[in-house]
Specification:
With 259 residues, this protein is of the alpha/beta class. It is built from nine helices and seven strands.
C-alpha cells in the first residue's frame, strides 16, 4: 500500500532507539524526510546514519532534551512546518505512590503531558491551514488500564489524552488528525529497566521476570518496535484521515476489556 507520504516532513521525538526509532524508520521507508531528536547524541547519530543509508531520505538529528523549552525550540527551528508530529518521551520511573514527591509528579507531567501539548500547540494550527497533518502521541496502555508501579506515568499519560480530545475533533475537518498509540510490553530499554527493578525488588533474576512477563501476554512474547512503527506510519498516512481522537492499543491482546 502506498501511504501517500512521500516528500512529507516529520518530527519524531525520542527517536534514537525503541518505539521512537521504530516510528522514524517506518516513516522514512515511506519517503518522509525526518527531524529526529533524543538526548544521547551518539545513539541519535547512529540511528540517523542507519536510517539515511537504508532509505535515502533527508534526516536532521537534533541532540536535545525535548522536555525543555530550549529543546523544543531547537527542533521546531529545524522543522517549523511539519506535516507529521510523533510525540514521544521517556516515561517516568517506576515506584510507590507513598514515596513519590510533588517534584516527581511535576517532572512526569512536564515530560509526558506538557511537552506534547506544547509541540501540538506550536504545529497543529499550521497543519490546519495547509490542509494536512498527523499527530501521533505515543503514550501507554496505562491510558486504558492503570499499571502498578507506574503511577507517575498513569497520571501524566491520562492527562495528555484528555487535554487533546477536543482539538482532535476540531482539527479533523481540516484533514488533521490527533491520535494516541498505546504500547503494551515492547522489547525496549524502557521495558528492560522495569524488568530489572522488578527483579531486584522480588529477589529474582531478570531472565525469570522477563520470561514470566512475556508469557503473561496472550501473544506469548513482547512486541517488536518495527510492528509499532508500522502502525504509526498507517495512522500518519493519507488513508487515515477519518481516524482521530482515538487511543489505539498495541499490546498483543493483554487488555481484557471490550472498550
Amino acid at each position: 500500500m502506498d501511504m501517500g507520504l512521500k516528500g512529507k516532513k516529520a518530527i519524531v521525538c525520542a527517536a534514537s532507539k525503541g518505539l521512537g526509532r521504530g516510528c522514524a524508520e517506518a516513516l522514512a521507508r515511506e519517503g518522509v524526510d525526518l527531524v529526529i531528536c533524543a538526548r544521547g547524541a551518539e545513539a541519535l547519530e547512529e540511528a540517523a546514519n542507519a536510517i539515511r543509508a537504508r532509505t535515502g531520505v533527508r534526516i536532521t538529528a537534533i541532540a536535545c532534551d525535548i522536555t525543555t523549552p530550549e529543546g523544543r525550540e531547537a527542533v521546531l527551528d529545524a522543522c517549523p512546518e511539519p506535516d507529521i508530529l510523533v510525540n514521544n518521551a521517556a516515561g517516568p520511573p517506576p515506584g510507590d505512590f507513598k514515596t513519590f514527591t510533588l517534584d516527581d509528579w511535576r517532572a512526569a507531567v512536564e515530560a509526558n503531558m506538557l511537552t506534547p501539548i506544547a509541540l501540538i500547540q506550536a504545529t497543529v494550527y499550521g497543519m490546519m491551514e495547509r490542509g494536512f497533518g498527523r499527530v501521533v502521541n505515543i503514550t501507554s496502555g496505562a491510558v486504558k488500564a492503570p499499571i502498578p508501579v507506574l503511577e507517575l506515568s498513569n497520571g501524566a499519560r491520562a492527562g495528555l489524552t484528555g487535554a487533546v480530545a477536543v482539538i482532535a475533533r476540531k482539527a479533523v475537518k481540516h484533514n488533521v488528525t490527533i491520535n494516541g498509540l498505546l504500547p503494551g510490553a515492547f522489547d525496549t530499554d524502557r521495558l528492560r529497566s522495569v524488568i530489572r527493578k522488578t527483579a531486584e525488588a522480588q529477589g529474582l533474576s531478570e531472565e525469570i521476570v522477563a520470561a514470566e512477563r512475556a508469557a503473561s501476554s496472550p501473544a506469548g512474547r513482547f512486541g517488536r518496535p518495527e510492528e509499532f512503527g508500522a502502525a504509526c506510519a498507517f495512522l500518519c498516512s493519507a488513508h487515515a484521515g477519518y481516524i482521530t481522537g482515538q487511543n489505539i492499543l498495541i499490546d498483543g491482546g493483554a487488555y481484557p476489556g471490550l472498550l
